[in-house]
Amino acid sequence: METTAHNIEQTFHSIGSSTDWIVMVVYFFFVMFFGSYFGKYNRSTKDFFFGGRRFAWWLIAFSIVATGVGSHSFIKYSAKGFQYGLSSTMTYINDWFFIPFFLFGWLPIIVYTKIRSIPEYFEKRFSPSARFLATVLLLFYMIGYIGIGFLTLGKAAMPMLPKSFSLLGMQIHTSLMGVIIVIAIITGIYITFGGQTAVIFTDLLQGFILLFAGFLLFFLGISYIGGFHTFWNLLPTAWKLPLASFNKPPDFNFVGIFWQDGVAGSVGFLFMNMGLIMRFMATKSVDEGRKAATFNILFMLPLSAIVVGNAGWLGKAISVAHPEIIPPNTSPDQIFVVVANIVAIPGVFGFIMAALTAALMSTVDTLINATAAIYINDIHRPVKQYFKKKSISQKENDKKELAAARYSSVIITALGVVAVLAFKGFPTVYEAHGYFHSTLTPPLVVAIFLGIFWKRFTPAAVMTTFIGGVALMLLGASHPSILIHPFDHGIHMNAHHPYSYIRALYNLVVCSVVGVGVTLANSKLEQFVKATIKSTSMAYILVGLSTLLFVLIVSDFLPLSILIILSIILIALVAVTSSYLIEYNPEGQTTGLTIWSVQKAKEAFKGRKINDAEGKKVLVNWKKKDVEDGVINFSKNDMEKMAANVGDLVYISDKRKWLGGLKSIHSVYGEPHNEDGIVYLSNEDLLNGVFIKGKILEAEKEM
Amino acid sequence: MLTFSDTWLPFIYLYGVGGIFFLIGMIIIRKSGAINLNKKRHKYWYRVLIFGYFYFVLMHALLISWALYW
Lengths: 703, 70
Known about the structure:
The complex is a heterodimer of chains A (703) and B (70). With 703 residues, chain A is mainly α. Chain A has 28 helices and 9 strands. Chain A has a 5-stranded mixed beta sheet with strand order 7-6-9-5-8. Chain A has a two-stranded antiparallel sheet with strand order 1-2. In chain A, strands 3-4 form a two-stranded antiparallel ribbon. In chain A, helix 7 runs antiparallel to helix 18, helix 9 runs antiparallel to helix 16 (348-386) and helix 20 runs antiparallel to helix 25. Chain B is built from 2 helices and no strands. Chain B has helices at 9-31, 40-69. The A-B interface holds A 86, 93-94, 96-101, 103-105, 108, 237-238, 240-247, 254-255, 258, 262-263, 287, 290, 294, 297-298, 302, 453, 594-596, 598-599, 612 and B 2, 5-7, 9-11, 13-14, 17-19, 21-22, 25-26, 28-29, 32-35, 39, 41, 45, 48-49, 52-53, 55-56, 59-60, 63-64, 66-68.
């Protein structure tokens, strides 16, 4: 045990025994082997990133647990649980407000429009320039998220490691960044050879283990303290409340966290987190995606809140009863490891730590996989298209892209390590994550939200939201006592980390005002553009001027009043130039891309009118056909049972439910035959579905 | 000494302001036709959405009461 500078916090080293380390190493090898086994299901980038859109809702719901719990880690919630009690759970139980928008807006749009990344949506809905800016912002967001994951992993591992050790005669001091680099190498190796299917199955396993480990720790801790009644009575009343105090203290207050996590974070998590979105896109249908999301928020998140925070509550109760065992000034970010070590015997402690770190790795893996998807879709392919490389076969192209996806995963992992530097100065991981969400999510959250739910939202408005909104956000960051203060709900400003959470409200408001304002002024803007901008070169001069203004605002050496005026001029210039330079077809670029035309997106997905007639599922044996015609053939009677017509979409899977759709494919109904109970599949279908001879398949009409 | 702003104010703010977002969402999905209450499956989802909101209201109300009075 060590007391850090100024006697503020006590930190720990060399916690755990050799038995714990053996358990951890065995667990990691098991998980890596388990994940790499499923690498064989990746036959293309579609499989590598999206798992082939085949899985059952329950499989995805449980696999999301590891992702969600990992990202909202044991470390940060135990820290807040130790400092403030049960209110550490509040961020897990505030996601329902935006679920109608997600289930019936964003989810069907991303599935039916076959969008592979969020920036791609921006191109279809607005313009390539909007896609470019969205890509830049999203990459910042995703790499920052990976950085937070690595920081948490490093903080989890530090208390278990010695202060220093000798290697080949050299004395090496254990540093946070050193630990993070080693962890990043292990994580990078796993994701590079796994892919989305591997991540889903590893997360599924880890979801179960994580819940088990979290509850095991809770029961061991309660028994250590002397029963639930003793535990409950040891906690001060304020520690028992599920929501934090309204506006104090600055490092953990309800209203700031509501806007940072409940609004920006929830929308960001559901609408922007490509890792999570890709998981929903891996479900076999939109309805299965809805089930997975609903089950996760209603049941898994409240359970996860207990799993991740209970070590902090136990730590508080022990520190009240036995301050000599857990001093009240123990470093909050270490409390999870300290409590787990006290209440669990050697070996069990190793298992709990392995479950924690493996879950964190799952989160980071998912994010790296998702960021690689953004790289391939939004940088690699457009750049290749721009340079018009010689055409190659689809198969060869897929092979090359799969290799590029793997290389990019390695580079993204390295960038994630660099991103840790931006967050390691915060007192706790929780505050670092809160600051990160408040700062990086608002422009994208506002742009995606208005793009999906407001048909009138224009490319000029989205460009201005990105550029003008970010300029105003930067001003807020530089002058919080003036600009963020009116939104602070009475929260005291901490001079070192001003308004870590409530800045989200200011950022959301400025981005929304800019976006809504430019949209409402669209007709006047178009008249103005027609009357004043006479040539493209004039428009480009204004773009240059806008860039100069943005640089002036970022450099922040002028008085605030002038910077505000410059920001307003910047907003006007971006709106005018975007309105002139971006070609926009309001009808064509909103159809199927906003909630107001989801049905059309569904029809476009199918390629013909939707067949809504309710049919039944049928069980069939498969036979191989020699032609690769892109359809599968059932008997006439079986098609009648399914209420299906030729050209409708069909989903066919191995009958064994517990496989969760791992062995399955989507296809199209071809011309029927007369052999009831038989389906004819091509060689490609058999390879994609990994169907086994003699195993019965279950088929159902998709639409 | 706990005050109103420590106990019930966060609850009222959460389900008041959050409730406004939720209500807007419910109105938009109905008005846009994204949810079609003539379809059996959609009617089920509509009920699930409303249930979810009150499920969390009840959960937090019980937890606050439990903390204060038990």
